[in-house]
Amino acid sequence: MKNLPIVLIVEDDKAIVHLLTTILDANDYRVVQVNTGREALSTISSHCPDVVLLDLGLPDIDGLDIIKNVRQWSQVPIIVLSARNRERDKVEALDLGADDYVTKPFGTAELLARIRIALRHVSTGAPDTPTGKAQNGRLTIDYDKRRVYLDDHEIHLTQVEYKIVMLTMLHIGKVLTYDFIIRCVWGARPTVNNQILRVNMANIRRKLEENPADPQFIITETGVGYRMIDHAEENI
Ligand code: CA
After folding, report:
1. Cα 23 versus chain centre, distance
2. N or C: which end of the chain has fewer CB within 10 A?
3. Paired residues of 175 in beta bridges
4. From ligand 1's centre to the CA of 66, what distance in Å?
5. Cα angle vertex 140, ends 137, 145, to 5°?
6. Whose CA is closest to 82, among 106, 115, 62?
7. pLDDT, tens digit, for every residue of 90-111?
8. Å from CA of 149 to ligand 1 middle
9. CA dihedral sign, ordered 143, 146, 148, 152
């Protein structure tokens, strides 16, 4: 038997469990499934899954409390399965340490892409001072020289703009909340708000994107934050 990645589904809705199991079985994942938060906590410690798909609305423990608990002892990637229009839940889940979220109803391709990204970037733990170069499609970032290139053409960014681009590259494919970006770039100064971040992002897009209204690199996750599209994933 092949050593398949284990996906733990934590979900109490039988129809969704059935759908997820079918999709994951067909795509070479081993599925473990539980219906409650209590079982989720014991199964994460006993089965060491490679990735957890977590519904927030469970019958016993709130999904957010599960994230908080698990993050005290495990860095297993957690992808939240979230109902539409609950942006505050998404933000809180991400700030508590969830890696990503998928909005219900979800598309198969998107779900599988999110799982692959979570597995690919597992435990690499973004370093504070990255070195070397990283490439994402036409975009290249040279961490040593603190320079950004589109194809071979250097893009002139301010310090703050560079930090934002660097941060999204280090967490490529993952959504970063506004608060997270502000903390990392400005050190959580309360005078800096989302508006200042938005202005910087608009400037970055003007410099980086052919059409800033339809960004190909850093996209907006409405009400939540920003995500650097992983161009190794063409399905998103
Ligand atoms: Ca539920």
Report:
1. 21
2. N
3. 227
4. 14
5. 175
6. 106
7. 899 999 999 999 988 889 999 9
8. 44
9. negative
